[in-house]
Amino acid sequence: PPIISIRSLSKTYANGFKALDDVTFDIEEGEILALLGPNGAGKTTLISIICGMTNPSVGSVTVAGHDVVTEFRKTRGEIGLVPQELTTDMFETVFNTVSFSRGLNGKKANPALIDQILRDLSLFDKRNNALRELSGGMKRRVLIAKALSHEPRILFLDEPTAGVDVALRKDMWQLVERLRKTGVTIILTTHYIEEAQEIADRIGVIDKGRLLLVENKDALMRKL
Ligand code: ADP
Ligand code: ADP
């Protein structure tokens, strides 16, 4: 079965603005899906609903078979969300930041696992450094490590390379390719077609709240 099922999903905000309009599709476990669309298309709204932070107006979403509204405690644990910016204490160490994040998600401490995540993200050498001592690229890796700390099956990357220079962007792309091997399902939002092309197995194009298409990348590229 798909790990995420989205059915006839619409979202109208309190001011009457319709940010999502009748979206239906499935996401398979282990795939990398890029949600491609211009600013304001509804990508963040869609992710926010899947993560249980915003309620749908119409329709439903299930994560690992559980409804995101009525069973959000179950669905939340399956999800790691990578925001664009670090907002935690910049004087805390890398290890403590990631370990604390696991605790916040209700999981028992597991220093060996945290160290493994840091190794996978090439952060192990910096484990005892304060966040303020890290480069921009390293800080972005810490955000991913935090999101992986409670062993989610799904990882959301919100505009992972927005405002990032070319070198850091390539670095992120390689990182996602490495994460694929861990079996985690990855969903990223982007407005760069090159990024979707580079990273994703499947691309969903969203515009004005509508899912225009969702297709295997190679099939899509042949049409463009
Ligand atoms: P994207 O992530 O693709 O840029 P968003 O999901 O953030 O798109 O936003 C989609 C549209 O919904 C935008 O026009 C935005 O202004 C609007 N929007 C987002 N949040 C709210 C809100 N809380 N109230 C009203 N409109 C909103
Ligand atoms: P270093 O300390 O290795 O010089 P920087 O912290 O200056 O690294 O970041 C390297 C590059 O990444 C710079 O071009 C910077 O503009 C960019 N960058 C750093 N942090 C962010 C961020 N949070 N969002 C977008 N770009 C960033």
Shape by Cα distribution: globular
DSSP strand tally: 10
Portion of residues in helices? 25-40%
Structural class per helix/strand content? alpha/beta
Any low-confidence stretches, pLDDT <50, length ≥5? none
- Secondary-structure element series: EEEHEEHEHHHEHEHEEH
Spatial order of the strands forming the largest sheet: 6-7-8-3-9-10
Question: Could you give a short account of the major beta sheet?
Answer: 6 strands, mixed
Mind telling me the C-alpha Rg? Answer: 17 Å
Mean pLDDT: 94
Helix count from the secondary structure assignment: 8
**First and last CA, distance:** 30 Å
Bound ligands, each once: adenosine-5'-diphosphate
Report the portion of residues in β strands.
25-35%
GO molecular function: ATP binding; ATP hydrolysis activity
Family: Belongs to the ABC transporter superfamily.
Protein name: ABC transporter ATP-binding protein
Keywords: ATP-binding, Nucleotide-binding, Transport
